[in-house]
Amino acid sequence: MIIFLSSLAAAIAALGGGYLAFKSRNRLNLALGFTAGVILGLVAFDLLPEIFDISRNTGLDPIWPMIALVSGFLLFHIIEKSILIHHAVENKYGPHQHPHVGVAGAVALSGHSLLDGVSIGLAFQVNTSVGVAVAIAVIGHRFADGFNTTNVMLHHQNKIKTAKRMLFIASVMPILGGLSTLLFTLSESILGIYLGFFAGFLLYIGASDILPQAHSRGSSRLTIGLTVIGTIFIFFVTRFA
Questions:
Q1: What is the mean pLDDT of residues 190-194?
Q2: Contacts of 175 (CB under 8 A, 6+ apart)
Q3: So what's the pLDDT on residue 45?
Q4: Is the pLDDT of residue 84 over 60?
Q5: pLDDT-derived band at 61, boundaries 50, 70, 90
């Protein structure tokens, strides 16, 4: 029951983040600036420290998560460019923008949401205190993930209805992931490699996709400031957790 409740709280947090993104869509460049900072913070203060902890505790050579990181970065780069080349329509979409790319990004974030639920379930398999600590961390950044999922969809010109559907999917995934751990266990080494892959994906969409678009209509001090605030926000979320 505690796994289900923790996963449900993570789902609600994602919906809250998505709701905030919808409310701010009229000033999407500012929201994207904040999102880029959030993504940088997740990689630097959440994913990479977790990878190094797993490597130290399991004896996993850190080179493997780093190979996975580069693979995640390059794979999404290839997917995005292939979609844009295949679906190129002159003057219809701006640089790096196409609904299919937004859906691909949202699907990847949904996959991470599933693993967030798995992380909660596996942590409670260790003991309750570890489970609570992991649940707090996951719930904290699920809000950011819901915000990011919605902004990725809106950034790539997807319809509001489609963006809401993907947000719902991303929100439900932690519940499914948490409940699935009643059926299996996952090696820490495999989890470390997966986290490396996802960190590479996040670095790509943050630095090569979202941040340039945030400044596509001209840089502003407010946009830059929100990027910094997003990074600091995740720093305090991860330190508190």
A1: 83
A2: 4, 7, 8, 10, 11, 117
A3: 87
A4: no
A5: very high
3-state secondary structure of 222: helix
For tokens 């596509």, the residue is 216
State whether the Cα torsion 13-7-172-201 is positive or negative. positive
Helix (H) or strand (E) run with residue 1 in it = none
In three-state form (DSSP H/G/I as H, E/B as E, the rest C), the secondary structure along 37-84 is HHHHHHHHHHHHHHHHHHHHHHCCCCHHHHHHHHHHHHHHHHHHHHHH
Tokens of 140: 């904290």
From 103, 52, 101, 45, select the one nearest 77 (Cα to Cα): 101
CA nearest neighbour of 170 among 123, 117, 127:
117
CA distance 151 to 32: 7
Give SS3 for 236: helix
Angle CA 115–228–105, to nearest 5: 35
CA–CA dist 124, 44 (Å, integer): 25
pTM, entire model: 0.64
| Euclidean distance between CA atoms 30 and 25, whole angstroms | 9
